[in-house]
C-alpha cells in the first residue's frame, strides 16, 4: 500500500469517525464526580431505607412515652344469667341456693395513670437513645454510599479510558499488520513478520473487546447505584472545583475527628447504657392510680351511678431469674460496645494516616506521569515533523500516538489514585457528607 493511499485511508477514517463521535457525545449524559456524589446523597435506595428506620425509631419514642401518660377507656357490658350462691360461699338453711335468671348491666369510663413507674420512664429514655442510634446509622449509610459511589465513578471512568487506549493500540497494530502484508507481497517482508503482526493484532483486539465489556459492566454498576436509566451512555467530565476542594482539605489537620463510624459506635454505647438503666428499673416498685365512674344495675333505667377510686402498688420479688439474666446481658453489651468504640477510634486514626501517606505518594506519581506525558507529546510532534519532511513513516507516527495514549492512560491512573486517596481521607475524617449537604461543595 502506497504512502498516499495510507494518508487517504487515515483521513477517511477520521472523517467518518468525527460525526459519529459528535453524535455520541450529544446522546450521552454528562456526569462529574461531584454530580455523582450529589445524586447519591439523595437518591440511593440504602439511604431511603435508613431514613425509614429513623422514622420507625421516632415512632417507638411515642410508643414508649404512652406508658407515662393517662390511659382512658370506656367499658359497657350487659347480660342475663343465673347464679348459685354456694359458688360464693353463701348458704342459708331453708333458702334456695339457685337464683335467677336476672339481668345485669354495667357501663363506665375508666382512667389509669402511672404515678411511679421507673421502668416505663427508662424505656422512654432508651427509645430516645434509639433515635440517636438510628440517626447515626443513617449518617454512616450516607457516608458509606458516597464513598462507594466515588469508587464506582472512577472505576467506570477508568474503564472507559482503557477502551480509548486500546482503540489507539488496535489502530496501530492494524496498520502494522497491513503494512507487513504489503511488504510481504512486495518482497520486502517475510511471512514470519506478517504472522507476528497478525498475532499482536488479534491479542489487542481481544483486549479491546474485553475492555468494552468491562466498561459496560462498570457503567451499569454506577447507574444502578445512582438509580439512573441502565445502559444510558455517560460522558465523564473533570470537576476542577471538586479537585481544588479535595486538595485544600488535605492541608487541614482536623482535631478530635468523629466520623460516621465513631459516632455510630458511640451511639451504640449510649443505647446499651440506656438498656442497662431500663433493666435496673425493672427491679423497682411501680405505683399506679385508677378511677372509674358509670351506671350499674339491672338495666340503664333500673340502676345507680357508681364509682371506684384506688391505688395499686406492685413490687417484683422473683420472676425466675429473668430480670437478673437480662441485666447481666446488657452489661455484656455495654462492654462490647465500649471495646468496639475504642477499636473504631484506633482504626480511623490509622485510616487517616494511611490516606495522607497515599496522597503524598499519588502526588509524586502524578508529577512523574505528567512529565512522561509531556515527553510523549514532544515525541509526537517530532514524529509529525519527520513525516512532513519525509524522513519518518506513518507507522512511526502511529506508534508515537500510541506512546502518548499509554502515557496519558498512566497519568489518568495516577490521577484516579490521587482522587481516591482524598476520598478515603474525607471518609475517615467524616467530612465526605459535607461536600453534598449544601449542593455547592461548601
How would you describe what is shown here?
The protein has 442 residues and is α+β, with helices and mostly antiparallel strands. The protein has a single domain (3-76, 98-437), classed as Up-down Bundle (Outer membrane efflux proteins (OEP)), CATH 1.20.1600. Helix content is 68%, strand content 14%. The protein has 10 helices and 6 strands. The strands form 2 sheets. It has a 4-stranded antiparallel beta sheet with strand order 2-3-5-6, with no helix packed on it. The chain has a two-stranded parallel ribbon with strand order 1-4. β5 (286-297) and β6 (303-314) form a beta hairpin. α4 runs antiparallel to α5 (191-225). The protein starts with a helix and ends in a 5-residue tail after the last helix.
Under CATH at level 1, the class stands as: Mainly Alpha
User: What's the helical proportion of residues?
Assistant: 55-70%
CATH architecture: Up-down Bundle
At the third CATH level, what is the topology name?
Outer membrane efflux proteins (OEP)
* Helix-and-strand structural type: alpha+beta
Termini, distance in Å?
59 Å
Number of strands: 6
Amino acid at each position: 500500500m502506497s504512502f498516499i493511499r495510507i494518508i487517504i485511508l487515515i483521513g477517511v477514517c477520521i472523517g467518518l469517525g468525527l460525526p459519529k463521535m459528535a453524535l455520541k457525545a450529544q446522546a450521552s449524559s454528562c456526569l462529574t464526580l461531584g454530580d455523582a456524589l450529589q445524586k447519591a446523597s439523595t437518591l440511593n435506595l440504602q439511604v431511603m431505607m435508613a431514613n425509614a428506620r429513623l422514622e420507625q425509631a421516632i415512632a417507638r419514642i411515642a410508643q414508649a412515652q404512652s406508658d407515662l401518660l393517662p390511659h382512658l377507656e370506656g367499658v359497657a357490658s350487659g347480660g342475663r344469667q343465673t347464679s348459685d350462691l354456694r359458688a360464693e360461699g353463701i348458704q342459708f338453711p331453708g333458702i334456695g341456693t339457685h337464683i335467677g335468671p336476672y339481668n345485669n348491666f354495667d357501663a363506665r369510663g375508666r382512667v389509669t395513670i402511672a404515678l411511679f413507674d421507673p421502668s416505663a420512664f427508662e424505656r422512654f429514655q432508651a427509645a430516645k437513645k434509639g433515635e440517636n442510634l438510628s440517626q447515626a446509622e443513617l449518617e454512616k449509610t450516607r457516608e458509606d454510599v458516597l464513598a462507594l459511589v466515588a469508587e464506582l465513578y472512577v472505576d467506570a471512568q477508568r474503564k472507559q479510558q482503557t477502551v480509548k487506549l486500546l482503540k489507539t493500540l488496535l489502530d496501530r497494530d492494524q496498520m502494522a499488520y497491513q503494512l507487513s502484508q504489503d511488504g510481504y507481497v512486495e518482497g520486502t517482508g517475510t511471512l514470519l513478520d506478517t504472522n507476528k503482526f497478525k498475532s499482536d493484532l488479534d491479542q489487542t483486539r481481544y483486549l479491546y473487546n474485553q475492555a468494552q465489556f468491562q466498561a459496560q459492566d462498570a457503567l451499569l454498576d454506577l447507574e444502578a447505584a445512582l438509580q439512573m436509566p441502565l445502559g444510558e451512555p455517560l460522558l465523564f467530565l473533570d470537576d476542577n472545583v471538586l479537585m481544588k476542594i479535595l486538595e485544600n482539605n488535605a492541608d487541614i489537620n482536623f482535631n478530635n475527628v468523629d466520623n460516621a463510624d465513631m459516632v455510630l459506635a458511640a451511639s451504640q454505647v449510649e443505647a446499651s447504657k440506656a438498656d442497662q438503666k431500663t433493666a435496673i428499673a425493672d427491679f423497682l416498685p411501680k405505683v399506679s392510680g385508677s378511677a372509674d365512674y358509670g351506671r350499674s344495675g339491672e338495666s340503664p333505667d333500673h340502676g345507680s351511678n357508681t364509682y371506684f377510686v384506688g391505688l395499686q402498688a406492685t413490687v417484683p420479688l422473683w420472676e425466675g431469674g429473668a430480670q437478673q439474666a437480662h441485666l447481666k446481658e446488657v452489661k455484656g453489651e455495654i462492654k462490647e460496645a465500649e471495646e468496639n468504640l475504642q477499636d473504631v477510634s484506633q482504626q480511623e486514626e490509622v485510616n487517616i494516616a494511611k490516606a495522607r501517606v497515599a496522597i503524598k505518594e499519588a502526588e509524586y506519581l502524578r508529577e512523574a506521569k505528567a512529565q512522561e506525558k509531556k515527553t510523549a507529546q514532544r515525541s509526537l510532534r517530532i514524529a509529525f515533523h519527520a513525516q512532513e519532511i519525509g524522513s519518518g513513516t506513518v507507522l512511526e507516527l502511529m506508534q508515537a500516538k500510541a506512546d502518548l495514549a499509554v502515557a496519558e492512560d498512566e497519568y489518568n491512573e495516577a490521577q484516579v489514585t490521587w482522587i481516591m486517596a482524598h476520598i478515603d481521607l474525607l471518609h475517615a475524617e467524616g467530612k465526605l457528607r459535607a461536600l453534598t449537604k449544601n449542593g455547592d461543595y461548601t
